[in-house]
Amino acid sequence: MTDTLVLVIAVLLMVAGLGGVIIPMVPGIPLILGVIVAYGWYEGFNVITISFIAMMAGITLLSVIVDYLSTTLGAKYSGSTRAGVWGAFIGTFAGLFFLPPLGLLIGPWVGAMLGEYISVNDFNKAVKAGFGTVIGLFSGLFFNLLLGIIMVVSFLFRVI
């Protein structure tokens, strides 16, 4: 393969990784890291150095932490119980399968509300927990998308 073709494939896979930040079940940021490591291996770690890969791995770890904390903090801030958080998680996947792409917005909210309502049997608290969980979920998604873009742009600056 030519170097140009390998670079084009790498960029396409990274774009898929950025899509994976938005679409659950696709490991977006880890996919981007994997492509960076694979490209570094392909070119002999001359341009994509081990220190650059370590920095990108740090960003990947940060994205995992943000992913977990954003939903949890959004739920906790709104007074949600663990059932509300689990409801949002399950609702995300259900929404993805039953109402794509709109389900990505509706699923977590409905799931968090249902989980919270089952747990505390208070409709107003369930609605508040649903909104808090979704706000946390989407703030984390936005931040992870930003981290993914930083990773892709950093890669492109190195290789082009």
Structural summary, described in words:
The protein has 160 residues and is mostly helical. It has one domain. It is 84% helix and 0% strand. The chain is built from 6 helices and no strands. It has helices at 3-22, 28-42, 50-77, 82-98, 103-120, 123-159. Helix 3 packs antiparallel against helix 6 (123-159) and helix 5 runs antiparallel to helix 6. The chain starts with a helix and ends with a helix. The mean pLDDT is 89.
The level of helicity is over 70%
Rg from Cα: 19 Å
Total helical segments: 6
Let me know the number of strands.
0
Tell me, rounded to a whole number, the average pLDDT.
89
Instruction: Indicate the low-confidence ranges by residue numbers.
Output: none
Task: Give, in order, the helices and strands.
Answer: HHHHHH
- Taken as a percent bin, the fraction of beta residues is under 5%
Structural class: mainly alpha
The main β sheet shows up as: none
Distance, first to last CA: 18 Å
Domains, number: 1
Q: Based on CA inertia axes, which overall geometry fits?
A: elongated
Main attributes of the structure:
160 residues, mainly alpha, 6 helices
Question: How are the secondary structure elements laid out?
Answer:
Blueprint: H1 3-22, H2 28-42, H3 50-77, H4 82-98, H5 103-120, H6 123-159
Helix pairs in contact: 1-2, 1-6, 2-3, 2-6, 3-6, 4-5, 5-6
